Task: inverse folding
């Protein structure tokens, strides 16, 4: 005898928004005392122009 077909609902992961990411990132920064720091640098391309490069690092947050 064949068993009846079961309908399986897909597991839905919570959707992250920019606002929820921002809130969680701020909480992490306050907890750890560090933040992601991005600084632009300009590199000569050798033919009279410059390229922009972003240097990413982790730095201590400013004291309040």
Result:
């Amino acid at each position: 005898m064949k068993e009846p077909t079961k309908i399986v609902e897909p597991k839905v992961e919570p959707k992250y928004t920019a606002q929820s990411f921002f809130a969680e990132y701020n909480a992490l920064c306050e907890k750890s005392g560090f933040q992601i720091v991005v600084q632009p640098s300009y590199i000569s391309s050798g033919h009279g122009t410059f390229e922009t490069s972003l240097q990413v690092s982790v730095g201590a947050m400013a004291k309040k």
Observations:
- The two ends are 72 Å apart (CA to CA).
- The CA atoms of residues 1 and 23 lie 54 Å apart.
- Helices lie at 18-32.
- The first helix runs from residue 18 to 32.
